[in-house]
Known about the structure:
Number of strands: 53
Organism: Dipodomys ordii
GO molecular function, one term: cysteine-type deubiquitinase activity
Oligomer: single chain
Domain USP: 168-544
EC number: 3.4.19.12
Low-confidence stretches: 1-18, 76-80, 120-160, 405-462, 521-530, 812-1009, 1329-1335, 1350-1355
Amino acid sequence: MVPGEENQLVPKEIENAAEEPRVLCIIQDTTNSKTVNERITLNLPASTPVRKLFEDVANKVGYINGTFDLAWGNGINTADTVPLDHTSDKSLLDANFEPGKKNYLHLTDKDGEQPQILLEDSSNVDDSVHDRFVGPLPREGSVGSSSDYVSQSYSYSSILNKSETGYVGLVNQAMTCYLNSLLQTLFMTPEFRNALYKWEFEESEEDPVTSIPYQLQRLFVLLQTSKKRAIETTDVTRSFGWDSSEAWQQHDVQELCRVMFDALEQKWKQTEQADLINELYQGKLKDYVRCLECGYEGWRIDTYLDIPLVIRPYGSSQAFASVEEALHAFIQPEILDGPNQYFCERCKKKCDARKGLRFLHFPYLLTLQLKRFDFDYTTMHRIKLNDRMTFPEELDMSTFIDVEDEKSPQTESCTDSGAENEGSCHSDQMSNDFSNDDGVDEGICLESNSGTEKISKPGLEKNSLIYELFSVMVHSGSAAGGHYYACIKSFNDEQWYSFNDQHVSRITQEDIKKTHGGSSGSRGYYSSAFASSTNAYMLIYRLKDPTRNAKFLEVDEYPEHIKNLVQRERELEEQEKRQREIERNTCKIKLFCLHPVKQVMMENKLEVHKDKTLKEAVEIAYKMMDLEEVIPLDCCRLVKYDEFHDYLERSYEGEEDTPMGLLLGGVKSTYMFDLLLETRKPDQVFQSYKPGEVMVKVHAVDLKAETVDAPITVRAYLNQTVSEFKQLISKVVHLPVETMRIVLERCYNDLRLLGVPSKTLKAEGFFRSNKVFVESSETLDYQVAFTDSHLWKLLDRHANTIRLFVLLPEQSPGSYSKRTAYQKAGGDSGNVDDDCERVKGPVGSLKSVEAILEESTEKLKSLSLQQQQDGDNGDSSKSTETSDFENIESPLNERDSSTSVDNRELEQHIQTSDPENFQSEERSDSDVNNDRSTSSVDSDILSSSHSSDTLCNADSAQIPLANGLDSHSITSSRRTKANEGKKETWDTAEEDSGTDSEYDESGKSRGEMQYMYFKADPYAADEGSGEGHKWLMVHVDKRITLAAFKQHLEPFVGVLSSHFKVFRVYASNQEFESVRLNETLSSFSDDNKITIRLGRALKKGEYRVKVYQLLVNEQEPCKFLLDAVFAKGMTVRQSKEELVPQLREQCGLELSIDRFRLRKKTWKNPGTVFLDYHIYEEDINISSNWEVFLEVLDGIEKMKSMSQLALLSRRWRPSEMKLDPFQEVVLESSSVDELREKLTEISGIPLEDLEFAKGRGTFPCDISVLDIHQDLDWNPKVSTLNVWPLYICDDGAVIFYRDKTEEVMELTDEQRNELMKKESSRLQKTGHRVTYSPRKEKALKIYLDGAPNKDLTQD
């Protein structure tokens, strides 16, 4: 809800030139994060002293004057400005305030302390000073929509002080403004409030939480005695049985009034208040029918709680001008004649009669509902009528009372029951929507239906019936949503107030007149559309009767149980006040702690009173982190910490007795730093951290073992030299300085060797928190260029390695020998074909593995020789090769190392000996690399070893390294010149599993020294993962491609990489398949989970396609059938051949290949018909997750060429008001004449009488049969279909056609209304012509047992 801005203090126009200039001050409260977005506006005379400005600001925000500062905020940094003197008598003009301009000020803490909140009632505030938030009404002309009425945020301090009006507001829970308006009206009704106070709650009989009268009683006591600005209504709504979702449902305030009154009546049964609602709000009226021939009258007596007054008579465009006019229309009788004649019991025939309503008794509190919400049968939407309707402050109802009954000479009968009782019959059941006996329909869930209530029978009113208005419930917005608030007159001071949720302000009679509605000028029929959306919806009048008019009970007049309740609520409020005071003095700051055993960084929020010492705060943090059983208290301390940079700013030696408020710089809503609970071992001492130091995490590197140790933290200064820094590091890690190499990691994967001893750490790029790697060994690695060194490779691997958890399928891993046998047996014809292509031979001339080996022997020898000659240090590599491989855990460790090397050389040779083959392959890289199992014999057999730790070269050639490391498992193939220029399709599975490295003219990879790390170990997962499932903990270089990653998993899964799929598991346990084989694992992070599922993965050029059946004459024309795989280069006919068995097995559809077609699908629209000879990717563009329609044909396929056009036609029969089913029309060209001829041919309509129109919107282009005849553009004057306004250029367009000589069926009003309802229902089901789809409204119910019955449907 957006409160009005009319009462905000803004500059007013100076009407007289001699008038004193005024100064506009806009103050921003920066003392709290909740108030920082609020602005306080003051418009003061220029002569106002600064001292008075401070007083006015204090009154506005509810702070004690002198506990806050005001500083300039006109774009100036407040930290550099001197605050204004709050005791100064200088005028605003002399204090450099500028009249006629906006003067911005910041309200800030004084001396580091937050302002103190004034908790006393501000009764001395000048009434002329309006509340800074409150406006009596929303702005004139504001757009009425639910989005315009979002509750304004307010600071906690702003609700602590009661409004200067003395009244307390109600907090809007979300969309409970309608409830707040009614509650405030009931509270401001003396008779209702006093009666509620007299009722006494018996706790032994009912739970106070579910007692509606008790919670209302509590609420009214708080509204009368609380010192807060606004109070919550959650206890009341909880007693209704509502949950938090009900707060987001807006309901009608009149409906709530009836439901709440019925609930109170049920709760008050057999109490003194049992008949309270009827005594205050119930009136009586007579519903009669009088024969115009004999004068006989049948009637019944009905009761009512409110009178609904229509704004506009049915079918009229003119609204009633006033409430009095609407009341006269309410009792205006209608004549029953013609087919509506009344059967007279006395005349024994149908006669003309007069039917109407007469008021017999008006209640003490008269409720009038202005029926502003209506239903527009033209648009089939709810609308709001904003027409002007005036209402008087005093309403004389004596002119509407019925006095005819006293002198009526006729014998009258009660048509309700046939009984006669002194000329009247009593019935609780009301007509005209006044009431209903059914508790469930009324919104009250009861165990059993209540019996008929006894009603009072007062005689005819002879006294004065003058009513005075005291409550106007206003609705601002539209029929779709809006905002309620109440304008209520206090009977204490006769002053009007606006109760707008938490804001209460004084208003005038002029503000009440603005709620009459309408616009200033006359706009004729459309006046309502341009009228203000803010207008009165419910009016409540009280009878002016000095003998009955009550005053509110004063505190000393309260019953004893209410006095006790007041005392309890005051104590609760005082306790809350004390708690707030503690909150205001509590420092809340993020606390971190690295668990000394688990080595996991824990996070919490430390809340400590500002007067607590550092020593006490350490104890609180110690207990908060649950370290009592882990480490002694004296081994812990708090230090200043920067979590973002992981930097220890300073320690607090010798300040154990210093208050935390002083250490942290006062109590603040947010701090620019955090605290770390640092721990040490009992035999260690804490290091002193001084401001200005930088923190360095030192990782010791062992090149021989290829390990990187956990970090050791040291402190250094930016002005230290590298040489001095080495001396410092040497003492910590115990490494010699002479051979020490230090590498700084400035950011991710940015490694910098600190090679200049005289350079300072600042010059080298050190910052507050830094990470360095230190190595000192006797090897010659330091003589090599850093980027070519073993150290660089090890650190590069360390930086890019991530840990993944892989869930394997239930099937136990098989051996590659079995899969080799399977392939040799021809079990997978696709793989056999792939093998043929791999050795560059035709399909029919597959060579054996032995032949391949023999052919490649010479090339293999020369290749190995060349590799040794090209090595940086061939002898060193050769000598250390065996020992290095012993460090790599692998299934190959069981085999002779020389045999393994030979096998690797063979498999590399087979992959690279004929690179031209790659350009013609139509399969995934997984197949390329896994087919090596047939040539490398059993080099990849999964042995009993369960760990595989490999370094993989991105290039396929084996490259000896200076440090003796060898490329153990080749996982990627390079792009040859032949396929280098090919455009890769990212939406499909890719063949190329290598990195996207470029190649120079010689064909060698520029990144050939890039190694990909992979290590897998069995992992014991938590219980519940299921029997048969096995986990792997995989450490892998995230620059590895998905294809290479899958190849590494083959030994553990037990099948080829082309026969299992990789699914990434997200936090919500949602799984998504990873299919792009040439993408790296860079999007993965540590501890991500992966699930492996068996099934054929996509190969290069393959696409997953969703197949839907097109059912043109069904209510839902789009039905999902199955997922299929289409391949690049495949013809449509080939894809149909593959679909036939799948359709039979999965969908039960027995189709021959010539009895169905495939066609383009764009959302629900059928498009281009695909012909059998079309080729995917050449004639038909295809993409990932493509969708296609399958359409079953009635006969042979008529579409033979792309020049034809297939349209869907539908005949409209106006004489029957119906549409025929769709029929397909195939045209040889885009000629309109040909279309007309085809339509004549299938329909028999003469060519000269045929008219057609193009359908609108999404297929099937549904349109109401009431609109189709005139809404479509019939018979467009064009000669071809591909021009405006048709633009039919593709298959699938919808054409309606008709016989122009056929007359439209004449409908009666009844038939039209019935047809309109059917069509509206039909179109809503199909999702067409529904421009607005509101959320489903929940029925307004109050549950008397405190909660809804879960077994019953609530809606």
